[in-house]
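Provenance and format

Records in this collection were gathered into a single text stream. Each protein contributes a sequence line and a token line. The two records reproduced below are adjacent in the stream.
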Amino acid sequence: SAINFLERLCLTWMFFFMMCVAERTYKQRFLFAKLFSHITSARKARKYEIPHFRLKKVENIKIWLSLRSYLKRRGPQRSVDVVVSSIFLLALSIAFICCAQVLKGHKTFLNAAYNWEFLIWEAALLLFLLRLASLGSETNKKYSNISILLTEQINLYLKMEKKPNKKEQLSLVNNVLKLSTKLLKELDTPFRLYGLTMNPLIYNITRVVILSAVSGVVSDLLGFNIRV
């Protein structure tokens, strides 16, 4: 029993240590995204002591897009995504097991000690996933903030009225901004769940398996069939 307890303790510590590393990486990504969103604002750039430039030239737009791409790739990517996907898959498996146990006998579900252990693990994993999902969602909002490009387009239109002699040059910059807006919309991956990068297989398993299990539990408890 002592060896079994020590093994569980060590495995639990290792697993939660990896989750803390993943959370730290997500915090760094959010910080980079937050500072990146302040680059085009003179007031915020001065407040956070970061460089500032406006997207009024084609060269500036190229630098802005290159910097965005560099910051999104900076730091560990694949290893952290593997850890997050593993956490999500483990939480999904525990939820499926709990749903199966409830369907087997919901009155005696809490009588078994291992079911309480499953519930504690599920609660801990869900807390970490909610934290990572919150950070990932906020990071995506910062990087996918199209309002920055729209604001620069409005500024260009106002400059065209004040400086008609530079209308051709400003029109070129405006066209590049429009193409950049379309590019940012196309770059968003479809396999994301509240900011978490998901493997396509896990994404499809989530949509099919867990929804079916939850549907079966709700149907069993409420007494009527629910189709998801």
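Adjacent record:
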Amino acid sequence: RKEYVDLYVNYKFNKSVQKPFEDFMQGFLRGCPARNWKMFFPEELQVLLQGHQTFDWHLLEKNVTYTEYMESDQTIRNFWTVFHELPEEKKKMFLVFLSGSDRISGYGLRPFRFCIADPQKENPDESSPYASTCSLTLFLPR
């Protein structure tokens, strides 16, 4: 029985995926030659390829610039109060809304900067926030 289980596990985890894995590895090595990525630990390589998955949200707040707003404006204070009360998943959804991705590059949040701008609508109560993902700008009506 042990031999059967060993052979079955070997088939499921190794032999059955051998061809697709070889194809993947060949493509991966074509785009990222082994000599370039062997210097990284697996965790570092994962961050480089996938970006960071955990964030210091207060650092994100410190990196924001404002257009037609000041940091002390009530709208901005309300925004950050609500933002920091959101669950982690909703904060990542905000990143998707703002930048198109729920992850930040391997450099982390320190160089990640975005802008909160006032779209200067005549009636801000009839306008919703919107974002320009190209310029990382959140247009937040008053």
